[in-house]
Design goal:
Layout (H helix, E strand, L loop, with lengths): L1 H19 L3 H37 L3 H28 L1 H8 L3 H33 L4 H24 L3 H26 L12 H34 L3 H17 L1 H19 L3 H37 L3 H13 L4 H16 L3 H65 L1
């Protein structure tokens, strides 16, 4: 899974670098697209968390047919739900752009780009749902391998569609559609061959099944949708500094996603382990496992922050051809990475709390991170220190969020251990 997520983040970073060569308007268009992309990803991840939970539980109870039926039901819910969201985004695009503070010059680029991007988002979501079904059945090798394959395809197709076919930013979305489409054509037959999905609704209580999915999906999805809401508010704030600031924020955000790849891999791989230990009432090993993971995150992210500090000027010039964007991006890559260790711990604590069955605790951590720390610190930094102050504020917000997330997790695990000791 680590290599799969790494390849996925690598292609997204290189994708942004290619778009950065097209000029400031396409890059700004990607910056205004990012919050909406996070909305769609939030929906698919929320449903993916529910998929893993309900299907693995059904398999543990040896209800094999029910697990297959749940997989089919989830695919239908995901296909229709994400398609509906994409249609709503398209028809409300000008309203959304106005709320985000987008300049008129970006509208024409968005009008041409979003039809292709929305289709690529839907295809990507469907591929993600197939990955979730694989993971639910204990197969993490196939999703990891396919992430590497589709990312490699995207890296090859991106320059071909963007530059050779002269399709510009639209070519980036078309390359993604082709790569993810090929991924579905490979994964779907394998899922069918293993009989992991059934669309037979015979003896399936659809209402109760949807409720079971929704019970987990609801808090998880809200937790996943808070970052895009925060991103929209942050984008509107950053838009006040001009188009170059938005363009650099888009590139910097991609770089952040890339550097957090090990954290993302841990958030995917640790919940099944935590779940098994929780089932065995082994709280000591849970504490030990989480502690080791947190120490690794702090060490790894600090190392990356030092590297980023040393190569920020070179990397900024590599990722964009616009001098003004390059200067702001250099600031981003110098300041923000210092705080990503704390942000990584916060992200992991959300995942761990969900695995512990404390979905509302996870939701509280997410809400506090964004609305009590990140956004207020971002705004205060911008007011006091301009664009540089904005980045410093974002870094401070991340550090505070990581600290509070750790303390909240400690409280949750202690409460669970105390409850178990009282029962026994």
């Amino acid at each position: 899974m680590l290599f799969g997520v790494l390849s996925l983040m690598s292609f997204q970073l290189v994708d942004s670098a290619f778009i950065g060569q097209l000029g400031i308007l396409p890059l700004a268009a990607q910056g205004f697209t990012l919050p909406l992309q996070m909305v769609i990803i939030g929906i698919q991840v929320g449903l993916g968390i529910a998929t893993t939970a309900v299907i693995s539980k059904a398999l543990g109870a040896e209800k094999l047919q029910y697990a297959r039926q749940l997989a089919g039901l989830i695919l239908l819910i995901g296909a229709v739900g994400v398609a509906l969201v994409c249609v709503i985004i398209w028809f409300l695009r000008h309203v959304i752009l106005s709320l985000l503070g987008a300049p008129e010059s970006v509208y024409a680029v968005i009008d041409a780009y979003w039809p292709y991007w929305l289709i690529s988002a839907w295809v990507g979501a469907m591929l993600y749902f197939f990955y979730s079904i694989c993971r639910s059945n204990g197969n993490t090798m196939l999703p990891g391998t396919m992430m590497m394959l589709t990312s490699g395809l995207n890296l090859v197709l991106d320059p071909l569609f963007i530059f050779t076919f002269d399709l510009g930013i639209n070519g980036a979305a078309l390359a993604t559609i082709v790569a993810f489409g090929i991924g579905i054509m490979i994964v779907a037959p394998k899922v069918h061959r293993h009989s992991w999905v059934s669309f037979d609704r015979h003896d399936l209580d659809v209402v109760n099944s949807v409720k079971a999915v929704g019970h987990i999906m609801g808090p998880a999805m809200i937790s996943q949708l808070l970052p895009p809401l925060s991103s929209m508010l942050a984008t509107k704030l950053i838009a006040g500094f001009g188009t170059a600031a938005i363009a650099s924020w888009a590139l910097g955000s991609r770089f952040e996603f890339f550097t957090l790849v090990s954290v993302l891999a841990l958030t995917m791989s640790m919940p099944p382990m935590i779940g098994r230990l929780l089932g065995a009432k082994n709280f000591a090993d849970i504490r030990s496992l989480v502690s080791i993971a947190c120490r690794f995150i702090l060490f790894f992210q600090t190392s990356l922050a030092i590297i980023s500090l040393l190569v920020s000027a070179w990397l900024s010039s590599l990722m964009t051809s616009d001098h003004q964007v390059e200067e702001i991006l250099n600031l981003h890559l110098t300041i923000i990475p210092i705080s990503l260790g704390a942000l990584g711990i916060c992200m992991l604590m959300v995942s761990i709390c969900n695995a512990l069955g404390r979905s509302y605790t996870a939701l509280r951590i997410s809400a506090l991170r964004l609305f009590a720390f990140f956004l207020p610190a971002l705004w205060l930094g911008a007011e006091l220190g301009g664009i540089q102050g904005l980045f410093i504020g974002a870094a401070i917000g991340n550090v505070l969020a990581g600290l509070v997330a750790w303390l909240t997790y400690r409280s949750a695990i202690n409460q669970l251990a105390e409850l178990e000791s009282l029962r026994s």
